[in-house]
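Ticket #440: bound-state structure for 5'-deoxyadenosine.
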Amino acid sequence: MPEPKKLFIKTYGCQMNVYDSERMAEALGGQGYEETDRADDADLILLNTCHIREKAAEKIYSELGRMKKLKLAKPNLKIGVTGCVAQAEGVEIMRRQPMVDLVVGPQSYHRLPELEAKVQAGEKALDTDFPDEDKFEILKSRPKTPHGPTAFLTVQEGCDKFCAFCVVPYTRGAEVSRPVARILDEARNLVERGVREITLLGQNVNAYHGAGSDGDCSLAQLIWGLDKVDGLERIRYTTSHPNDMSDDLIAAHGDCTKLMPYLHLPVQSGSNRILKRMNRNHTAESYLSVIERIRAARPDILISGDFITGFPEETDADFQATLDLIQEVHYGTAYSFKYSTRPGTPAAERAQVPPEVASDRLQALQALLTKQQQATQNAMIGREVGVLFERPGRDPGQMVGKSDHLHAVHVTHSNARIGAISRVRILSSGTNSLAGEWVG
Ligand code: 5AD
Ligand code: SF4
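RESOLUTION: The complex was predicted; output attached.
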């Protein structure tokens, strides 16, 4: 047997990228690669990049600059860039940093083994096309090695919404949904390997419309299909757009016991004027009405969101409308970002808000969201919740898992084993987690 070659993947950004990195490691496993967590030990380094954060491409170029010395020390080392920066920059990456051997966009990961072989033969490899063939199917046929009792399952990729600030429709392409039967097969396969909770992933997951046995199938119908998979106990999905929260999906939150009481529903702004300029195609009122309907279906649902401060032309009054909306919704948790320009998107061309104003607003917004998060966590104290245990904690005898509401929960002196779902009484709340006692 030849020595396994070592693969180091550095993952940036979203859960989609974490998932993609796992699939890439599997695909390259077939080429004799084994993963390492040390860059200086690797024969192949992949930077799986994300374009969402500010100056993403520049950060990748400086990281590549730092990796140059590894390549000087080990001339056989191959370096690749994957993910959304690869898609957006393409051959430009190899022009600016000639030691890069491989550039692969998210639509072409199934070609990695073939591209890697090309690189080993001393050539450069570039693939940032959007091919018609279904890359999911090719990647999917490889054995899965889930890590622990929870797993992500991509059901949909890309987005047709074209929010004025966002690069996803350009980097990930048009919205594509996987067929239902393939998803159910993959879910059963994951469950056989010990998975008890599946998070359905997609940039615009609730726009899902994959082919079913009887025509196109909605996300709610897919969830009901997964509900019948024995051994699968919990279902989640992320990320959603308010306009795709259909009646059947809202109803499923009330009727499907495996669907967990958590909804990540980005709104970005509470000002109708800004929402229009963002091309969100919804208003603050229509968003609030979705929240009201989902709470009618599932009163204890925890709502999470995404916000942007300092979007071009945002005034103090617009920002106040966002704070008002937050007060009205009361978020259990949230993600918030200062607007940053993405070249090529419509908002990049508009009058920018001074960065210090955007920062001050972000601070004020986060202070309010943190207060709401703490209040939500404190309200859990004294309650008994279901916890799926994922890993041992730092202290002896401690176990860590996630509650139905996706709170991290630490439990000492539990009889729990990894993969078990137990009742836990919540005793206290920390900054980002809860602590409780095992009930049974
Ligand atoms: N500037 C700031 N935040 C952004 N997001 C997406 N694009 C930008 C940008 N240009 C945020 C949105 C989105 C989340 C994934 O990232 O809030 O919902
Ligand atoms: Fe980007 Fe989400 Fe808007 Fe699609 S819906 S363009 S992924 S922010």
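RESOLUTION NOTES: The chain has four domains: 5-127, 146-260, 262-267+282-379, 384-438.
TICKET STATUS: resolved
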